[in-house]
Write a structure and sequence with these properties.
There is one protein chain. Strands 6, 7, 8, 9, 10, 11, 12, 13 and 14 form a 9-stranded mixed β-sheet that branches. Strands 1, 2, 3, 4, 5 and 15 form a 6-stranded antiparallel β-sheet that branches. Helix content is 27%, strand content 26%. With 297 residues, the protein is an alpha+beta fold.
Length: 297
């Protein structure tokens, strides 16, 4: 916290911190994987770049260089002796004056790391998950900036997730304000149709995911076609395959949407190929040819 190692139980903030009342935080989610060559953090630089981009949008001048922040992330994993883990860097408006104006409040930085398995369950990586189209839409243009990974934005995600769980689904997919496919509560959406991979563009109120971009790189490296384009809701129902990507979710297939079976109702061949190529890099089974892994040691 703010440049110092702090015991987990003592990592506390004041109840009147700005972030508590107004959601004024930006954050990232990263994973560290135990590879054959030792523990390594996946796409550390790209995640920290996005953190600083979010800060720029919300006028948060982070008081550390990007290298200092990246070194601190590595140090937190190393000091805690974690072989594989989830990492949460967060920058937030702290204690100061009350009111919507955040500029007089302190700007605080913290990095936490803990062991966290597959977000949607190990079984889901093969069998897929049940999804519904949410009744909640993503933000309209010029309301909340979807390109920023900001705490307040995730109130919308909570509504999407809770609704899905209470209705017996594993996850929800939101549409944008125009009724086109946007993203899940914390994942990007991909569909496969006739061998072509499609995903909504950033103009569809999505967060441009790091794992999402990784799929572009891997798929194109394997000779697959990837298109970013606006997708109508019904394109999900008639897709050959649908899968979700994210740091927490990794690469999770979708078996059904609104009770409609997708493809064969389990992981499809394109999803399986992408999964294997992705996890082979993360486990050190194949060379890190895209220079994505930062060694902890």
């Amino acid at each position: 916290m703010d440049g110092k190692l702090v015991d987990w139980k003592k990592a506390q903030i004041h109840v009147l911190s700005h972030v508590v009342h107004y959601g004024s935080s930006i954050f990232e989610g990263l994973r560290c994987y135990q590879t054959k060559n030792g523990s390594a953090i996946f796409r550390l630089e790209e995640h920290i770049d996005r953190l600083y981009d979010s800060g720029k949008i919300y006028r948060m001048e982070i008081p550390y260089t990007k290298k200092q922040f990246m070194d601190a992330v590595v140090k937190v994993v190393k000091v805690n002796k974690l072989k594989s883990c989830y990492i949460r860097p967060v920058v937030f408006r702290g204690y100061g004056t009350m009111g919507v104006n955040p500029l007089k409040n302190s700007l605080n930085c913290a990095i936490a790391a803990w062991s966290w398995g597959t977000y949607l369950g190990e079984e889901a990586l093969e069998k897929g998950i049940k999804v519904r189209i949410s009744s909640w839409h993503r933000q309209a243009p010029n309301t909340f900036p979807s390109l920023a990974k900001a705490g307040g934005n995730y109130l919308n995600s909570q509504l999407i997730k809770m609704e899905a769980l209470q209705d017996g689904f594993d996850e929800g997919i939101a549409l944008d304000s125009y009724g086109y496919v946007s993203e899940g509560s914390g994942e990007n959406v991909f569909i496969v149709k006739n061998g072509v991979i499609f995903t909504p563009p950033t103009s569809s109120a999505i967060l441009p995911g790091i794992t999402r971009h990784s799929m572009f790189v891997i798929a194109r490296d394997m000779g697959m076609e990837v298109r970013q384009q606006v997708l109508p809701r019904e394109s999900l129902y008639i897709a050959d395959e649908v899968f979700l990507t994210g740091t927490a979710a990794e690469l999770t297939p979708v078996s059904s949407i609104d009770g409609i079976v997708i493809g064969t109702g389990k992981r499809g061949p394109v999803t399986e190929k992408l999964q294997k190529a992705f996890f082979d890099i993360l486990k050190g089974e194949t060379p890190d040819r895209f220079d994505w892994l930062t060694p902890v040691e």
